[in-house]
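not sure who needs this but someone in the group chat was asking about UTP--glucose-1-phosphate uridylyltransferase from Ferrimicrobium acidiphilum DSM 19497 so here u go. i didnt clean anything up, its just raw.
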Amino acid sequence: MSKVTKVVIPAAGLGTRFLPATKAQPKEMLPVVDKPAIQYVIEEAIRNSLTNILVVTGRGKRSIEDHFDQSFELEQLLVESGRQNELELVRAISTLGNIHYIRQGRPLGLGHAVLAAKAHVGTEPFVTMLADDIMTEDSDLLQEMLKLHHRTGFSVLSLMEVPREQIRLYGCAEVKTAADGTLHVASVVEKPEPSEAPSTLAITGRYLFTPEIFTAIENTPSGKNGEFQLTDAIAELSRTQPVLGVVFQRGRYDIGDKLEYLRAVVEMALMREDIGPAFAAELRAIMAREFQES
């Protein structure tokens, strides 16, 4: 079985949940400590040997391309000022992987964004990673998904248990456990009401697809606002071949949510050896002052 090397990162969304911060900059470029969110996603891909990267963009996303391109003027300035550490950081960004770009055109949903990658992917299996979801460096989720695909040849979804009242925010998967412990996705539904959800397993922002997902998207009618839902296409795909799941519990931040974004900034700053201890001291001082004043 051929090795999976291609990854598709949809990045054409408007980021309306973060207005006004995203009025003139892509949500994917919002900083988490000192790196834009999408850089964490691409670094995760590279760690898992996914070196052929396609970013699906739209209008107003040029800064994503600029970020991963070389900046000769900036590099020259850093050379002349003797700032070697910063120079190495900047140069490393432009050599992360083989990054390509394509525009989605009309914003017709996540399924439509994945379909835009059809010509690039061809007949190979590939990973789709949402730029809204970033994982901690010690996460083995993607590695487990790749292993399961290599063993079976089937598509794999990342699944996370969430409180029932939150399942309406996600695609939801009902699973059945095979004799060998493998989770088979029996059904999926997009953002169900909690009382109607078949489970509390949420589909999160890591997918490993066989190329047949493109046919499934093409055979899936559009839904609300003319958008093509990826969850509906997954349901279509599961009618012709097995779709599997990997459940994980930790290491994920949904930075499309304001509170989750702030949690990501705080926790990932605390994990850093260079600023973590000093930042922890600042947080303790802030909390002591807040409790004293209250």
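also The longest strand covers residues 201-209. if thats useful
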